[in-house]
Amino acid sequence: MAVMSREQSPYVELERAAWSQLAGDTPLALDPAEIERIRGIGDELDLEEVREVYLPVAELLSMRVRLAEELYAATEQFLRMGQDHKVPYVIGIAGSVAVGKSTIARLLTELLAHSPDHPHVELVTTDGFLYPNAELERRGILDRKGFPESYDRRALLRFVMEVKSGVEVVTAPVYSHLTYDRTDEVVTVEQPDIVIIEGLNVLGSAKQRPDGSPGLAIRDFFDFSIYVDASSSDIKRWYVSRFLKLRQTAFADPKSYFHRYSTFSDTEAIERAETLWDTINWPNLRENIASTTGRASLVLRKGPDHAVKWVRLRKM
């Protein structure tokens, strides 16, 4: 098995060929139609990628969940406390806009839900915790949507803490990518085995308290975290390509916040997408997101073709 880095390190790095062997003979429960449904616009995902990359990830997570449950039960026994509620295993998935983290989050949700040990898996995206557009406009930061300050971090932290405390029923707000705003809907999380929380800044630092002391970060309550990585030049190219595809699909809906872009020529659309990347998404990636890579338990590094080329796993 080829290991990329052999020097002593708290991490192990495996090339894709070596990583793919770790799933062994585990059957793949998803068919091509299900994978097509899971795949986001602009993402490249096929059966081979799922078998070689994400099936081993799901196997690793299933093992960790099982052992975490045993450790929790042993700790409760040591403390002579009756285990009267379920405490979910919480997984955070971070990465840039257009890197494919939403597709990966949906895929892992499905793979883990097919596991006989963990049938109840919930996926929550942090988009729902963005402040409503009206509030962002009031604060003068609508053009900084996605930056840490555009989220209701207190509500997001409260949600994660309640989940990790074993609260039986927890709700999270829902975001509409059609209207580009929060809705009045909520998603209900009720005693799951696993909760996956996906978002740009889920591995970010805590907000400092008014007295200067450090606060809590949502990553403090993660049992495992994944960072989806790629070169910024590749991500920008994927972002522009996705923008062009959205112009012909989601943007074509008159109800879409971005409907005005549906009539753009290719040249106009590319110019607009590049401007949005250069002025919003790239600064956010550079200033807030990329620096959290080292905090992840697992890093999936993609190549120019959107396929994962190597994996870095923190040993403990």
Structure description:
The structure is a single chain. This protein has about 325 residues and is of the alpha/beta class. It has eight helices and nine strands. It has a single domain (about 10-315), classed as P-loop containing nucleotide triphosphate hydrolases (Rossmann fold, 3-Layer(aba) Sandwich), CATH 3.40.50.300. About 35% of the residues lie in helices and about 20% in strands. The protein has a seven-stranded mixed beta sheet with strand order 1-9-8-7-2-6-3. Strands 4-5 form a two-stranded antiparallel ribbon. Helix 3 (about 45-80) crosses helix 4 and helix 7 packs across helix 8. The longest helix has about 30 residues, at about 45-80. It is globular. The chain starts with 10 loop residues before the first strand and ends with a strand.
Overall number of structural domains: 1
Task: Choose one word for the global shape.
Answer: globular
The CATH architecture name reads 3-Layer(aba) Sandwich
- CATH topology, which one? Rossmann fold
Which band does the percent of strand residues land in?
A: 15-25%
Q: Please give the count of helices.
A: 8
What is the name of the CATH superfamily?
A: P-loop containing nucleotide triphosphate hydrolases
Average residue pLDDT = 92
Write down the oligomeric state: single chain
Distance between the termini: 20 Å
Give the low-confidence spans. Answer: none
Assign the CATH class: Alpha Beta
The major β-sheet equals: 7 strands, mixed
